[in-house]
Protein backbone atom coordinates (compact mmCIF):
# COMPACT_ATOMS: atom_id res chain seq x y z
CA UNK A 1 0.00 0.00 0.00
CA UNK A 2 1.59 3.30 -1.08
CA UNK A 3 1.41 6.58 0.79
CA UNK A 4 1.14 9.68 -1.39
CA UNK A 5 4.20 11.92 -1.22
CA UNK A 6 3.72 15.61 -0.39
CA UNK A 7 3.09 17.21 -3.79
CA UNK A 8 5.40 20.19 -3.48
CA UNK A 9 8.78 19.85 -1.73
CA UNK A 10 8.30 23.46 -0.61
CA UNK A 11 5.54 22.15 1.68
CA UNK A 12 8.02 20.06 3.59
CA UNK A 13 8.73 21.07 7.16
CA UNK A 14 11.57 19.55 9.14
CA UNK A 15 13.11 20.01 12.59
CA UNK A 16 16.32 18.37 13.80
CA UNK A 17 17.64 17.66 17.28
CA UNK A 18 20.74 15.53 17.84
CA UNK A 19 20.18 12.36 15.79
CA UNK A 20 16.42 12.90 15.60
CA UNK A 21 14.34 14.38 12.80
CA UNK A 22 10.71 15.48 12.70
CA UNK A 23 9.44 15.70 9.13
CA UNK A 24 6.14 16.19 7.34
CA UNK A 25 7.39 14.17 4.36
CA UNK A 26 4.70 11.52 3.98
CA UNK A 27 6.95 9.35 1.81
CA UNK A 28 9.16 8.71 4.86
CA UNK A 29 6.33 7.34 6.98
CA UNK A 30 6.38 3.65 7.85
CA UNK A 31 2.75 2.69 7.33
CA UNK A 32 3.21 -0.82 8.75
CA UNK A 33 4.72 0.57 11.94
CA UNK A 34 2.03 3.24 12.34
CA UNK A 35 -0.73 0.73 11.70
CA UNK A 36 0.84 -1.79 14.06
CA UNK A 37 0.89 0.80 16.85
CA UNK A 38 -2.57 2.26 16.23
CA UNK A 39 -4.44 -1.01 15.78
CA UNK A 40 -3.28 -2.02 19.26
CA UNK A 41 -3.76 1.29 21.09
CA UNK A 42 -6.70 2.22 23.30
CA UNK A 43 -8.22 4.85 21.01
CA UNK A 44 -8.11 3.09 17.62
CA UNK A 45 -8.04 -0.61 18.47
CA UNK A 46 -8.66 -2.75 15.41
CA UNK A 47 -8.29 0.09 12.91
CA UNK A 48 -7.69 -1.39 9.43
CA UNK A 49 -4.49 -0.51 7.59
CA UNK A 50 -6.39 1.01 4.69
CA UNK A 51 -8.16 3.39 7.11
CA UNK A 52 -4.81 4.44 8.59
CA UNK A 53 -3.48 5.03 5.05
CA UNK A 54 -6.51 7.19 4.18
CA UNK A 55 -6.19 9.19 7.40
CA UNK A 56 -2.52 9.83 6.64
CA UNK A 57 -3.27 10.88 3.10
CA UNK A 58 -5.71 13.56 4.27
CA UNK A 59 -3.78 14.86 7.29
CA UNK A 60 -0.70 16.93 7.96
CA UNK A 61 1.51 14.15 9.32
CA UNK A 62 4.57 14.49 11.50
CA UNK A 63 6.95 11.55 11.58
CA UNK A 64 9.78 11.45 14.09
CA UNK A 65 12.88 9.50 13.05
CA UNK A 66 16.08 8.23 14.60
CA UNK A 67 18.30 7.98 11.51
CA UNK A 68 15.78 6.47 9.07
CA UNK A 69 13.85 4.49 11.69
CA UNK A 70 10.49 5.87 12.68
CA UNK A 71 10.32 6.61 16.41
CA UNK A 72 7.12 8.64 16.69
CA UNK A 73 4.10 10.00 14.90
CA UNK A 74 1.32 12.56 15.16
CA UNK A 75 -1.14 14.03 12.71
CA UNK A 76 -3.15 17.20 12.37
CA UNK A 77 -6.54 17.65 10.76
CA UNK A 78 -6.98 21.35 9.94
CA UNK A 79 -8.41 24.04 7.67
CA UNK A 80 -5.11 25.92 8.26
CA UNK A 81 -7.10 29.04 9.10
CA UNK A 82 -9.19 28.60 12.24
CA UNK A 83 -8.94 25.10 13.69
CA UNK A 84 -6.64 22.13 14.19
CA UNK A 85 -7.32 18.70 15.66
CA UNK A 86 -4.30 16.79 16.95
CA UNK A 87 -4.53 13.02 16.91
CA UNK A 88 -2.73 9.67 16.85
CA UNK A 89 0.23 10.98 18.87
CA UNK A 90 2.76 8.37 19.92
CA UNK A 91 6.43 7.84 20.67
CA UNK A 92 7.61 4.23 20.48
CA UNK A 93 8.45 2.74 23.86
CA UNK A 94 12.28 2.63 23.56
CA UNK A 95 12.31 6.38 22.89
CA UNK A 96 9.94 7.48 25.66
CA UNK A 97 10.88 9.54 28.72
CA UNK A 98 13.65 11.52 26.98
CA UNK A 99 11.68 14.64 26.10
CA UNK A 100 11.04 13.52 22.52
CA UNK A 101 7.25 13.70 22.84
CA UNK A 102 7.57 17.29 24.05
CA UNK A 103 10.00 18.11 21.26
CA UNK A 104 7.68 16.62 18.62
CA UNK A 105 4.84 18.72 20.09
CA UNK A 106 7.04 21.84 19.91
CA UNK A 107 7.73 21.13 16.23
CA UNK A 108 4.02 20.64 15.53
CA UNK A 109 2.93 23.80 17.32
CA UNK A 110 5.59 25.84 15.47
CA UNK A 111 4.48 24.70 12.01
CA UNK A 112 3.98 27.86 9.90
CA UNK A 113 0.58 26.75 8.56
CA UNK A 114 -0.77 26.24 12.09
CA UNK A 115 -0.32 29.77 13.42
CA UNK A 116 -3.11 32.15 14.51
CA UNK A 117 -5.77 29.44 14.81
CA UNK A 118 -8.81 30.13 16.97
CA UNK A 119 -8.93 26.63 18.41
CA UNK A 120 -6.89 23.45 18.79
CA UNK A 121 -8.37 20.30 20.24
CA UNK A 122 -7.41 16.77 21.13
CA UNK A 123 -8.59 13.84 23.21
CA UNK A 124 -6.45 12.00 25.72
CA UNK A 125 -7.01 9.41 28.44
CA UNK A 126 -3.91 10.10 30.53
CA UNK A 127 -1.37 12.35 28.76
CA UNK A 128 -2.90 15.68 29.85
CA UNK A 129 0.38 16.83 31.34
CA UNK A 130 2.20 16.48 28.02
CA UNK A 131 -0.29 18.76 26.29
CA UNK A 132 -0.60 21.18 29.22
CA UNK A 133 3.01 22.18 28.48
CA UNK A 134 1.69 23.63 25.20
CA UNK A 135 -1.35 25.49 26.54
CA UNK A 136 -4.01 22.78 26.24
CA UNK A 137 -6.56 22.87 29.08
CA UNK A 138 -9.63 20.79 29.95
CA UNK A 139 -12.77 22.01 28.15
CA UNK A 140 -13.90 25.33 29.60
CA UNK A 141 -17.47 24.74 28.48
CA UNK A 142 -18.02 21.01 27.95
CA UNK A 143 -21.76 21.62 27.68
CA UNK A 144 -21.10 23.34 24.36
CA UNK A 145 -19.44 20.29 22.83
CA UNK A 146 -21.31 17.57 21.00
CA UNK A 147 -20.01 14.49 19.23
CA UNK A 148 -20.89 11.40 17.32
CA UNK A 149 -18.65 8.61 18.53
CA UNK A 150 -18.90 4.98 17.52
CA UNK A 151 -16.41 2.92 19.59
CA UNK A 152 -17.45 -0.25 17.73
CA UNK A 153 -16.65 1.10 14.27
CA UNK A 154 -13.64 -1.21 13.80
CA UNK A 155 -15.03 -4.13 15.75
CA UNK A 156 -18.46 -5.33 16.84
CA UNK A 157 -17.16 -5.49 20.44
CA UNK A 158 -16.98 -2.13 22.23
CA UNK A 159 -13.40 -1.08 22.96
CA UNK A 160 -12.28 0.12 26.39
CA UNK A 161 -11.35 3.80 26.22
C1 LIG B 1 2.46 10.23 25.60
C2 LIG B 1 3.80 10.04 24.87
C3 LIG B 1 3.66 10.49 23.43
C4 LIG B 1 4.88 10.89 25.58
O1 LIG B 1 6.08 10.75 24.89
P1 LIG B 1 7.50 10.87 25.62
O2 LIG B 1 8.55 11.03 24.60
O3 LIG B 1 7.66 9.75 26.59
O4 LIG B 1 7.27 12.23 26.41
P2 LIG B 1 8.35 13.24 27.06
O5 LIG B 1 9.55 12.46 27.54
O6 LIG B 1 8.61 14.32 26.08
O7 LIG B 1 7.56 13.83 28.32
C5 LIG B 1 6.18 13.91 28.33
C6 LIG B 1 5.69 14.84 29.40
O8 LIG B 1 4.30 14.53 29.54
C7 LIG B 1 4.10 13.91 30.78
N1 LIG B 1 3.07 12.88 30.61
C8 LIG B 1 1.78 13.04 30.96
N2 LIG B 1 1.07 11.97 30.69
C9 LIG B 1 1.90 11.10 30.14
C10 LIG B 1 1.71 9.79 29.64
N3 LIG B 1 0.55 9.17 29.65
N4 LIG B 1 2.77 9.18 29.12
C11 LIG B 1 3.96 9.80 29.10
N5 LIG B 1 4.18 11.06 29.56
C12 LIG B 1 3.16 11.69 30.08
C13 LIG B 1 5.46 13.47 31.27
O9 LIG B 1 5.48 13.40 32.67
C14 LIG B 1 6.31 14.62 30.74
O10 LIG B 1 6.06 15.81 31.44
P3 LIG B 1 7.16 16.48 32.44
O11 LIG B 1 8.36 16.75 31.57
O12 LIG B 1 6.48 17.70 32.93
O13 LIG B 1 7.43 15.45 33.46
C15 LIG B 1 4.27 8.55 24.94
O14 LIG B 1 4.34 8.14 26.28
C16 LIG B 1 3.37 7.59 24.20
O15 LIG B 1 3.50 7.41 23.00
N6 LIG B 1 2.44 6.97 24.92
C17 LIG B 1 1.57 5.95 24.31
C18 LIG B 1 0.60 6.56 23.33
C19 LIG B 1 -0.20 7.67 23.94
O16 LIG B 1 -0.78 7.53 25.01
N7 LIG B 1 -0.26 8.79 23.20
C20 LIG B 1 -0.99 9.96 23.61
C21 LIG B 1 -2.38 9.84 23.15
S1 LIG B 1 -3.29 11.31 23.58
Report on the structure:
The mean pLDDT is 93. This protein has one domain: Aminopeptidase (3-Layer(aba) Sandwich), CATH 3.40.630. It has 161 residues and is of the alpha+beta class. The chain starts with 13 loop residues before the first strand and ends in a 29-residue tail after the last helix. The protein has helices spanning 31-38, 49-57, 100-109, 128-132; strands at 14-17, 20-23, 60-66, 69-78, 83-91, 119-121. It has a six-stranded mixed beta sheet with strand order 1-2-3-4-5-6, sandwiched between helices. The structure holds coenzyme A. The site of coenzyme A has 15 residues, from strand 5, helix 3 and helix 4.
Name its key features.
4 helices; six-stranded mixed β-sheet; binds coenzyme A; 161 residues; alpha+beta; Aminopeptidase; single chain; globular
Assembly of the depicted chains:
single chain
What is the overall pLDDT average?
93
Q: What is the count of β-strands?
A: 6
| CATH fold category name | Aminopeptidase
Quickly count the domains: 1
- Order the strands across the largest sheet as they lie in space: 1-2-3-4-5-6
For the largest beta-sheet, the strand count, sense and barrel status come to: 6 strands, mixed
Q: What is the CATH first-level class name?
A: Alpha Beta
Task: Lay out the secondary structure.
Elements (H helix, E strand, L loop, with lengths): L13 E4 L2 E4 L7 H8 L10 H9 L2 E7 L2 E10 L4 E9 L8 H10 L9 E3 L6 H5 L29
Parallel strand pairs: 5-6
Antiparallel strand pairs: 1-2, 2-3, 3-4, 4-5
The chain binds coenzyme A (COA).
Amino acid sequence: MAITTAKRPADLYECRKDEFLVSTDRSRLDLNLIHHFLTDCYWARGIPKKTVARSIEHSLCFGMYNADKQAGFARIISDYATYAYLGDVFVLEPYRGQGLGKWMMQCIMAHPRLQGLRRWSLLTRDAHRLYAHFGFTPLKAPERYMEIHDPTVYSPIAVQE
